[in-house]
Amino acid sequence: MKGVTRDTLSLPAGSLEGGSDPELLSVAFLGGDGFPTHSSGRKVYNLRANMVQVMGSSSGTMSTCRTSTLVSKVNHPHLPMFRYEFSFVFTFIIALFTASLQQYLEKAQQAKAQREEATVMAALHSATQDMTNVARGIASPAILVVTHFPLGSFWALPEMFLASWIWGMAVILCCVFWFLLGRRRRQQGEPPLENGFLPYLGCALKFGANPLEFLKEKQKKHGHIFTCHVAGKYIHFLTDPFSYHALMRQGKHLDWKKFHFATSAKAFGHGSIDPAEGNTTENFHQTFIRTLQGNALDALIEAMMENLQYVMLQSRAPKLQSNTWVTEGLYTFCCQVMFESGFLTLFGKEFNSNNDKNLSSKQETERAHILNALENFKEFDKIFPALVAGLPIHLFKSAHSAREKLGEALLHKNLLKRDNLSELVTLRMFLNDTLSTFDDMEKAKTHVAVLWASQANTIPATFWTLFYLLKSPEAMRAATKEVQSVLETDEESISLDGKHISLNRKQLDNMPILDSIIKEAMRLSSASMTFRVAKEDFTLHLENDFYNIRKDDIVALYPQLLHFDPEIYADPLTFKYNRFLNEKGEEKTDFYRNGRKLKYYYMPFGTGIAKCPGRLFAVHEIKQFLALIFSYFEIELVDSNVKCPSLDQSRAGLGILQPSNDIDFRYRMKCL
Question: What is the spatial distance between Cα 580 and Cα 513, in angstroms, rounded to a whole number?
Fold first, then answer.
């Protein structure tokens, strides 16, 4: 054997098939045809078909063993794809790990004996070079190199180098293993597939960095439907708005509840709310529709109107004295006012405003508790995208603590002490107690879910609406005039003598300009996603084509593609307050793409049966907030030329995106 310079160490036949040699064998695949020269002179094994021949240069010994359990098929390197079975890849993993480790151990031992640090570093460099050579052998798995490696040599290595090296190699080997066997293959009739290069994550990092640009790129490459591997899930993105209705008709094959139920349990920490799981028989969606729409909405609007004025005028009174300008962050202001008002509206008050003798002190105590809840809410909300992605909350100690504190505040025993609970919370408490097997904290965490749903999108939507109004004097004038007209028509007077303005549902519905402004602000800031999970393998029939969908895959719509389409909305990145008004000043519903009228053109709240049940209340409370701002305050940006803050893309898919930074503004009471 030319090129083999080291004496051969005999290997018992069959040892590669599960022999119990007490010493570890290091195996590596090296590329090449025939037997290459190797400077280290280790034993060389020639792999031919399903046999391993063990050869040497001096003793001439040779043993042969079957490798049918190791190798299924070795393709020629010029074929388009290798086909490995599990045992073959497992052998390769051992080879890649231990071949270069052997050399490192040998040279590290020499370095230790000589006490020369330079030699240790040279050994590490040499081992790294050998590892690179080993990795190149993937392209032509023709030769096995085996070295004799005593286990005791491990203790000759510096522990820090060894641990880091082993973990690094483990990650690399897992990636290689996944790339060879774990990647999904596109089947006939399925949409184009984007696996991405990262195990489990797939395309998640690129998608998360800028979902809109990522989907536009894939749409241009693949067309109106394609599949992306994102965080362990295979998501079929449907981008043609004329095919949306086809998805809505697939109720027999698609489940809209499964994803939402799983996400809620994961994020908020309660048990599954899917009736099929047996924890509860409550139909949550029907509960929300019953208590957030119809007659129940009128009561919510009335309570919110009262609480907004209490928060704006009474609880903030110390800041508004002497008619001086107050400077704050706009997002901070919207967050405090909307959270405090919304909390009081849904979860009631600890004080009775009619006959409580210690009303003032109790109000201050109550406000302190709510503002503390707000801080816990913000701490929890910061890591909400990570929870949805599947990370356990125990990785985030402060957020976990914040969620638990919110749950403690919303325990049934504490809610029963409050007055004026909303119908939503009252009914949910009753159904929790009668239809579920949840413990007290799990019941409370279902209320935390209600709190989050009522605030997480409403707050940023309020911010964006007010920000665009402040940046557009024309829009501000039109909106202010509309509010004044409605108040004058109904003979509502604006004063600071304690008499509150009353705007009911009918009056709020008669504000088309505010409607258009809110819609336009939400069009520019929403990044919600509509999900459906396949119950079984089925064929999705679209307008001009059909595709096979596998069980448990997700079919998704990303409405931001629609909202930023220049064929539907001219100058899509520009705020136009009257974009959703027709020539008569009424709501506009005619939007076109390629000359065809669209049924789905505005979708910040989702669509179909899963459409947000609280959307009407959300829009009405933003209108109430704006009407009161126009009525009681002078308001302006500190810097009128300030640029629009960018959208925080980390929350893409969850609804209205938050601003990446706050904007300073100032306000003061009007002279009424």
Answer: 9
- Per-residue pLDDT at 324: 87
- What's the rounded Cα separation, in Å, for the pair 425 and 348? 9
Question: Which residue, 409, 390, 485, is CA-closest to 451?
Answer: 409
Mean pLDDT value across residues 285-290:
95
Among 66, 84, 63, 69, residue whose Cα is nearest residue 141: 84
Do 94 and 134 meet the contact criterion of CB atoms below 8 Å apart?
no
Distance in angstroms (rounded) separating the CA atoms of residues 523 and 517: 10
C-alpha 287/C-alpha 275 separation (Å) is 14
Query: Average pLDDT, stretch 462-490?
Result: 96
Residues 574/576/577/583 CA torsion (nearest 10 deg): -160
Beta strands in 156-213 (DSSP E): 193-194
C-alpha 238/C-alpha 218 separation (Å) is: 11
Q: Which of 455, 454, 450 is nearest to 287 (CA)?
A: 450
Q: What whole-number distance in Å separates Cα of residue 12 and Cα of residue 563?
A: 70
Mean pLDDT of 339-364: 83
Q: 65, 14 in Cβ contact below 8 A? A: yes
Question: In the numeric block, which tokens belong to residue 88?
Answer: 């073959």
Residue found under tokens 């504000």: 511
Token pair listed for 470: 């402040």
Residue of 626 and 94 predicted with greater confidence: 626
pLDDT of residue 355: 64
DSSP assignments along 67-94, one per residue: -TTT-S----TTSS-----HHHHHHHHH
Annotated ligand binding at 266? The verdict is yes
Burial of residue 534, with CB atoms counted within 10 A of its CB: 0-12 exposed, 13-18 middle, 19 or more buried: buried
Q: Which burial class, exposed, middle or buried, applies to 26 when counting CB atoms under 10 A from its CB (0-12, 13-18, 19+)?
A: buried
Listed residue (345, 282, 351, 276) closest to 308, CA to CA: 345
- For residue 405, say whether it is annotated as part of any ligand binding site: no
pLDDT tens digit string along 402-433?
999 999 999 999 999 999 999 999 999 999 99
Cα 203-206-212 angle, rounded to 5 deg: 110
Burial class of residue 316 (count of CB atoms within 10 Å of its CB; 0-12, 13-18, 19+): middle
The pLDDT of residue 444 is above 60: yes
Q: How far apart are the first and last CA of the chain?
A: 104
- Tell the residue number behind the tokens 């590669």, with chain if given: 16
Task: Could you list the beta-strand ranges (E) of 212-345.
Answer: 225-230, 233-238, 254-255, 326-329
State the number of CA atoms in the 13 A half-sphere of 94 facing the CB: 15
User: At 209, which amino acid appears?
Assistant: A
> What is the distance of C-alpha 314 from the center of its chain?
38
Tell me, rounded to whole angstroms, the distance of Cα 220 from its chain centroid: 24
Angle of helix 257-268 relative to helix 440-455, nearest 10 degrees, comes to 110
Distance CA 48, CA 145 (A): 14
Mean pLDDT of 145-163: 48
Annotated binding residue 354: no
Q: How far apart are CA 41 and CA 43, in angstroms?
A: 7
Name the phi and psi angles at 29, rounded to 5. Answer: -90, 130
3-state secondary structure of 214: helix
Question: Side chain identity at 572, as an amino acid letter?
Answer: P
CA distances from 445 to 265, 432, 439, 449, 459 (A): 9, 11, 10, 6, 21
Angle at 189 between CA 186 and CA 193, to 5 degrees: 30
DSSP, collapsed to helix, strand or coil, labels residue 523 as: helix
Element (H, E) at 186: none
All structural domains of the chain: 15-182 (no CATH), 264-669 (1.10.630.10)
Q: Are 513 and 577 in contact (CB under 8 A)?
A: yes
